[in-house]
Amino acid sequence: MMRNDPCWCGSQKKWKKCHYPKQALKEQYLKKYGIILKNDEQIVGIRHACRLAATVLDKLCSMTKVGVTTNELDQYAKELFEEKNAISCCIGYGEPPFPKHICTSLNDVICHGIPNDVPLQQGDIINIDVACILNGYYGDCSKMVSLEPVDTEKRRVVDVSLECLNRAAQVLKPNNKLCEIGKAIESYASSQNCSVVDQFVGHGVGIGFHEEPQVAHHYNHSQIPLAPGMTLTIEPMINAGKRSGYIDKDHWTCRTIDGKPSAQWEHTFLITETGYEILTIPDYTLFSHVRSK
Q: Residue ranges per domain, the chain?
């Protein structure tokens, strides 16, 4: 097709004024940054996977109560995935292979907590992280649950981490630089006497589990411009104390170095022509039943 030919989409515009610029931008981003700008068909598939992940996450959060074990949550996630012919991204991932279907990170655990048989207790805060593959597409999200009453420090870090995610979302629009995400997060976290973990990042997602770009949540200098078709996670891990963490002997669980609480919220976002869309919005029509403990 020549640049001056009518566009294949039927818009009655010349190709050079319609789909050609989008194609050129996709090629540029893949070559320069390794970033896949998704097409309409891919976005539909990613949206479905994200809605499933978000719905499963909501159901797990509703089940999260004092006395429930994280292994019970993991088993419920497995059942929900199987019902929709979906696959957990977590189980078998990495080296050593992650042994469970979800991550459950309590209190001083920053991320990658492994479900176990210890009952949840009053005063716990827990992050539940759900990621799945549906029809070859990926969705990824997480939420905090507080088992009230929780102490002031835990409440503060839960609230600050959610506000950090909300503030990061407000900078998502084409041509804004990737570093603006970290700036929005760390400037607010610091103002609330919290720290931002810099050992882990958000990431591109959708065609694969972890794609480019890496999304730093702390101050950084990434000058990659956001562009329509980018799908990425923002998942700031906020600590009440020092930003550093250490990995347990299970080779997965990361805990705060000072034992203070940590919190995280996560969405998968699509960059649109004018701003952003949150893809990890629950769809309560996906499941007709509610399971009780």
A: 25-278
C-alpha to C-alpha distance for 162 and 18, rounded to whole angstroms: 38
Sort residue 136 into left (φ over 0), alpha (ψ -120 to 50) or beta: left
The answer to whether the beta carbons of residues 133 and 160 sit under 8 Å apart is: no
Rounded CA-CA distance 18/40 in Å is: 15
- pLDDT tens, 4-49? 667 555 677 654 566 556 788 999 999 999 999 999 999 999 999 9
Instruction: For domain 25-278, say whether CATH 3.30.200.20 is its number.
Output: no
Which residues have C-beta within 8 Å of that of residue 80, sequence separation ≥ 6? 56, 59, 287
Rounded CA separation 177/180 (Å): 6
228, 272 in Cβ contact below 8 A?
A: yes
Question: What is the pLDDT, as a whole number, of residue 292?
Answer: 47
Q: What CA–CA distance (Å, rounded) separates 157 from 240?
A: 6
- 152-199: pLDDT as tens digits: 999 999 999 999 999 999 999 999 999 999 999 999 999 999 999 999
